[in-house]
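I have a small job for you when you get a moment. Can you supply me with one protein entry, sequence and fold together? It will help me judge whether the discrete encoding reads sensibly. Write everything out right here, beneath this request:
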Amino acid sequence: VQLQASGGGLVQVGGSLRLSCIASGRTIDSTDMGWFRRNPGKQRDFIAAISGRGGTIRYADFVKGRFTISRDNAKNSVYLQMNSLKPEDTAVYYCYANPGWATYWGQGTQVTVSS
């Protein structure tokens, strides 16, 4: 599975961004997918996950009410809508796919929230 993340950029505090992650190499309709982020010098943080059919969604507490994960299996894609962005949301965001036997990672997309 190859994953291509996009949609990052520079945004002001309170702004919004929508990250996209397109998978190739296999269909993802039975694959759990999600997002992590990593700040420089910090550990990787779980952000959100969505099950293959979208029936189960999990969020980290610090993004609940601000971020929304979704998927479009017809487009082999998963999305992360990020609203009310804060400076501490600045990080490289990575999508992942877990079909059950391994975890695959995208290359990351930089999100910078300026105050």
Notes: The mean pLDDT is 94.
